[in-house]
Amino acid sequence: MEHSMASQPRRRITIKRIWLLLICLMAMCTLGCGSSSDSANGLADPTNQLPFHQNWNSYNLYRFDAPSGNWIKIVNLGAAVEAVPALGLHPAILVHGLGSSIRSNTLTPLAQDLLSQNRATVVFGFEYDTLDGIAHNSTYFTQAMQLLNPGTTHPLWTMLGHSMGGLVIRASVQGNTLPIGTLSKVVTIATPHFGSPVANAVQGANAVNQALVVSVLNQGGFTNADGNPSEVPLSSQGITDLRTDSIFLGLLNAAANIANHPQVNYYTLAGTDKGSYSTVNDVLNVQTDDGFVTVASANPPQLLPVFTGTVGADHTRIISDGRTFVLLDSFLP
To answer: Pick from 107, 82, 85: which is nearest to 96 by CA?
Structure first.
């Protein structure tokens, strides 16, 4: 009896810790990089019996239709399904973050603002498999840019990436000569240029916490190429690439490589409010500024950015925050 009573407090603490992690991860959804409307539309599987994740080995491309507020798919898994519209003088392409998608509409407010403020003549959305390696996805981004720019003269682009999306763009820009006008703009919002301690913590969690993480993430957000939810292996290359000690980031940020972007100017924004993610940072024992990324990682001086800014918003809300739009309006054409 004495042994049983002595063990009860430890058990209560463990249960409390597990529930805190579960609740915070549900609020955070897909590591804080953008909740998906798919899960709200009944795609979640409460039994977690989801199909194994399969790498897409391709990409989707959309154009934003301002009158309807919809994203119209023009490339389906690498195959064109609609004609590319005229680019105009200042086209823009938006790239989502980990676990998100163009279909989730997390980037819709940004697309609407760019067009309504005449900061872009047309807006495209690049959709990719966020569990695949970032370097691999950057090759698909390069393919998408080549498809959109078939001529010999190229406009000034605004390439805007949220979180992991910024790294996809950077890897493409630093590894290729893209068909874009010189001094096009790369805007990264809450991008972990030097990694996220959350990725380290999630992969290094004990078996119980890893099982809880997988259980929550399996409820939607990550999909196979057919758009249906899939399991989320925490050891996936996409998550590994976001670690502060990842091989990918080590190469991307090597002095010789980080300076290889003569075609573009960088602009970076960082969030400074952890919001509802404060508790999950405490549970995972990590320190961030927006719940997923530190300001130092999101606004690194090594990129020699033309402009850096901070927004008092968390990692997810920053891409729809009005203060973000004000900053974007200040340096976009």
So the answer is: 107
CA distances from 305 to 19, 52, 104, 259, 267 (A): 41, 40, 29, 11, 5
How far is the CA of 88 from the CAs of 4, 118, 247, in angstroms? 73, 11, 38
Side chain identity at 72, as an amino acid letter? I
- Give the model confidence (pLDDT) of 154-193 as tens digits: 999 999 999 999 999 999 999 999 999 999 999 999 999 9
Strand ranges in 15-167 using DSSP code E only, listed in sequence order: 60-65, 70-76, 79-80, 92-95, 123-127, 158-162
List of residues 6+ apart from 290 with CB closer than 8 A: 32, 190, 270, 271, 272, 273, 274, 275, 277, 298, 313, 314, 315, 318
Q: What is the pTM of this model?
A: 0.89
Q: What is the pLDDT of residues 16-70, one digit of tens each?
A: 455 555 555 544 555 556 544 433 333 344 445 788 899 999 999 999 999 999 9
> What pLDDT was estimated at residue 150?
86
**CA-based max dimension of the chain:** 82
Domain limits of the chain?
Answer: 1-333
- List, in sequence order, the alpha helices (H) in the chain: 2-28, 37-38, 108-116, 134-148, 164-175, 197-203, 207-217, 237-241, 247-252, 255-258, 278-284, 295-298, 322-331
Higher pLDDT, 142 or 45: 142
Q: What confidence score (pLDDT) does residue 227 get?
A: 87
Topology of 1-333 in CATH?
Rossmann fold (3.40.50)
